[in-house]
Amino acid sequence: MANNYIQFAGEFHIRSLEEHTWFRHALRDVEAEVFDVDGNVVEAKVKALLDAEPWRDAECDDEYGPDFQFTFDVAVPNPADGFGRLFVYAEECGSAWAAGQLAHAFLKKFRPTEFWSVEWAETCDKMRTDNFGGGAVVATAKEVRISNSTNWVARMARHFTRTGELPPVRKVKRYKTGRFKGMTGTQILAKMGWDDAMWRMHLSGFLAERGLSNAFVEYLAHCAVEEEEEEKNDAL
């Protein structure tokens, strides 16, 4: 007999006591909210809870807990020490989509210009065909999106069945090196038609998608400047 697993791990950096309190409330035990005094489930209360907090799963367990595990790395936050992090994860089984729904609600409440993502793996403890895969969930204050390898393979197969070929690879537009040279940040925003909030959203998304740190971005910028200087010297 084989065992199948869905595993993922993500985190939220908590910046304030208000955010910490919100997460504690969102991930609370809600047994008293969905059962009556006799211990019977009240369907109207369940529907209201799931509508308000879609990261919970009615099929998860009798207490309607979120369909993932979580831990806080500090028991009681202290402003002097920071407010810690919330880890959301699945060791054997869980819903990355539910974690994305939690992220969406959090970003909508506290960080409307930021981006959050988590990737998951589908594995099996025996080497069985079609028992492996994975995917990712991305969340913003506006929406949550999901993609997985099964859908991607199915899309490739449908296109091949129709045309006998795989779909063409989308080309990434390459911009001319140095097009922003000598421009201030304000001038760049005006040229691209971005406001400050849109710029922060693009930057946070760029960093999150690539797993980059600000220090590494600064390094890349330094390399770009050196490349421009080399191109200019070669042209002389």
Search tags:
alpha+beta; six-stranded antiparallel beta sheet; 236 residues; 2 domains; 17% strand
Could you characterize the architecture of this molecule?
With 236 residues, this protein is α+β, with helices and mostly antiparallel strands. It is built from eight helices and six strands.
Helices and strands in order:
Elements: E1 4-13, H1 17-26, H2 31-34, H3 43-52, E2 69-72, E3 85-90, H4 96-110, E4 116-124, E5 133-139, E6 144-148, H5 149-163, H6 185-192, H7 196-210, H8 214-235
Total number of β-strand segments?
6
Net shape: globular
Helix share bin: 40-55%
Low-confidence residue ranges: none
* Whole-angstrom Rg: 23 Å
Strand arrangement in the largest pleated sheet: 2-3-1-4-5-6
The whole-number mean of residue pLDDT values reads 83
Biggest sheet, open or closed, and with what strands and sense? 6 strands, antiparallel
Brief summary:
By secondary structure, the chain is α+β, with helices and mostly antiparallel strands.
